[in-house]
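Q: How would the structure tokens look for this protein?
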Amino acid sequence: MYDVSTRKRALVLVAQGRSLHSVSRETGISRSAIRHWLTRLEPLERTPPCFRCQGPPSAPEDAAAYAYLLGLYLGDGYIISKPRQHYLMITCTASWPGLIAAAEDAMRKVLPWPNTTRLQRLGCVDVKSFSKHWTCVFPQHGPGKKHELPIVLEAWQQAVVDAHPWEFVRGLIHSDGCRITNWTTRMVKGERKRYEYPRYLFTNVSDVIRRLYTETLDKLGIEWTHCTRNGNPYDISVARKASVALLDTYVGPTY
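A: Here is the predicted structure in token form.
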């Protein structure tokens, strides 16, 4: 019923880490047919090239995209790793189409060959990229809640962050940060007046992820302070005019 190119396309999707069910649903081909082809057709490469586990380990070809994607992953990303299904997911607010596109673009630049999809949910969009090699690319992956994991960047990851700190900060802010307009009052010539000023907030429960953020800010010369909320030091604030201007230049809005 199916020509060789159709069969090979289905097998390529399986080789990317997709489950038989998801490939069948996307292509309209039965799971039994795909399972049969896996054993009868000319074998395909089941593990496309990975810059970490195939050949001498190396840095990603597009290091800037990786630094940005690392920031997104530490904020709103996680990896699903099952026997027949492996994928990276970044959850984005549905009202920010620019962020959704940027997350998908970064995934494709870091690992160009896996299939990517978008899953619309209530108020958000899950951007997925299917490959078992995402666990190689993000070795911080592990069972349990991310803020409870001992997150330590490997030497090659730290080298990427050091080379592209703004992209890393941009990814962190686009996932767990925001730019808001704050206000306060002060006495001016005996009269209390209100004035407004912009600031960036970054919120993450993980002490390690907050430290990675603030250490990178320090290297960039960005002044920051802790903001305790309900007794929890989860918020990092950048409110100094010069520092906000730098973040405006190199990070920009989430849109």
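The mean pLDDT is 89.

Residues 15 and 46 are 5 Å apart (CA to CA).

Upvote if useful.
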